[in-house]
Amino acid sequence: MQRPLPVWIDLARARAKQQLDGSVAGERMPRLSEAGVELLRPAEVSVCLTVPEFRSDARPAEVSGRIVALASLQCQRCMGSMEHRIESQVFWQLVASDSTEVDEDAEPIVLEGDRFELLEAVTDELLLAVPSYPRHAECALPGTHSGSDDN
């Protein structure tokens, strides 16, 4: 079992480059359950944090890596439970304002000071990876049956 992921990181005290591997239980991310997403097991997070020696808007701190989770969602067609695997590659640049330009393939995360809310960023990423209209691949509408008619 991996150790729990930290809630936040102080970039002013962080090492120049560090690997962060850990797990996040669903109970630590209440916004997931509020959105109807239940994690069937803790999300596995593996990210590398790179903090330049002289961090600025031109040289922001970066986080790259992967988040993997197995979620239980409600099928919007039959209203039954369904499993959905989430596997998300992340590349975040940690900037001071939303007007800061970031690399084309990066997602900006605006910081207040030197505190990077890692757990909130992971929660956001999981919520963005959930389909807006989850449904089973093969699913009948409520009140109907699947299969052939005998008539």
TrEMBL record:
Listed A to Z, the keywords are:
Ribosome biogenesis
Whether NADP counts among this entry's keywords is: no
A Pfam family the protein falls into = YceD
GO-annotated cellular components? cytosol
One BP annotation, GO: ribosome biogenesis
**What InterPro entries does the annotation carry?**
YceD (IPR003772), YceD_bac (IPR039255)
Reply yes or no: does the keyword Repeat apply.
no
Family note: Belongs to the DUF177 domain family.
Q: What role does it play?
A: Plays a role in synthesis, processing and/or stability of 23S rRNA.
Protein name per its UniProtKB record? Large ribosomal RNA subunit accumulation protein YceD
